[in-house]
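Pinned message: reference record for Threonylcarbamoyl-AMP synthase
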Amino acid sequence: MKTIIKTIDKNSIDIKNIGIAADILKSGGLVAFPTETVYGLGANALDEKAVSEIFVAKGRPSDNPLIVHVCNVEMVKRLVKNIPELAFKLMEKFWPGPLTLIMEKSSRVPEIITAGLSTVAIRMPSHPIALKIIEESQVPVAAPSANISGKPSPTEAKHVIEDLMGKVELIIDGGSSQVGLESTVLDVTVNPPMILRPGGITKEQLEEAVGKIDIDKAILSDHLEDIKPRAPGMKYTHYSPKADVIIIEGKVEACVEKIRELAESYKRDGIPVGILATEQTKGLYTVGTVMSLGDRKMPDTIASSLFRELRHLDDKGVRVILAEAIEDTGVGLAVMNRMKKAAGYNIIKVGD
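Predicted structure (tokens):
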């Protein structure tokens, strides 16, 4: 398959190229496009054959449900049996944006989208290119991350090109994703609502808007093979680079000491090692390829760079990545959720 690559400036959108993307979607093709979270691989959500091609292109397990992207609430009404009042409140507060809502699906939604579940995951992206594509195509768009299944999610077009060139009709380069982690997935069919995947909208933000929110215990489970996915990203090792990832968890000083010790050991054995540090600690390492994820005091900066730096260390040819854990509160919960899955839950705890 020949893949077309088009560049669109989100601040000055080229309607002609948006039209090309919309036409491909309407004709049953695949389009990779930027969103504010990560790049998505889109197909017409109402076209079962087109959606099946997403699974083929990504090598994605068929029991892993997809998120449907919309551009207005009228689209949502056609995809669900009813919109709970709570969902309307959340849409008003957080849409467009990185929040996915789980609701009871209508008969129009193909089972391939929901992996046979009675619910469907829906969100409205805030990225202007994503919104324009959906508006122009006038179809809801099923779109998981635009990468080979299991690899770190793509936050830049070059990541998509590395993974999907020759497997999709069109890749749109719209610059770097802002959030850097996939959306928060919230099930509003239960009371209280439950977070099935942490993301850019935090538990604290949700509770401030609508009251008590629960978190699914499976989010931090290390027995993923026993989980029946109720939302994307709940099952399987995800976000993994080629290198083995080891998380060091504990007080910062103890983490640094342990990582320095391990890095020296790998060096003696001739094993190239990478270190995922923070702005506060990056200068404390003298062995290995050191990358700063961002500022510990601003976890948003770490969220936006995690996937990019995992891919960057792969490009550097390291075989082991030693990663400092961060506090798992706020956006840090989403960061640690992704980091632990990237590591296959290979965690060394240090200190008290």
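Pinned by admin. Summary line: The mean pLDDT is 94.
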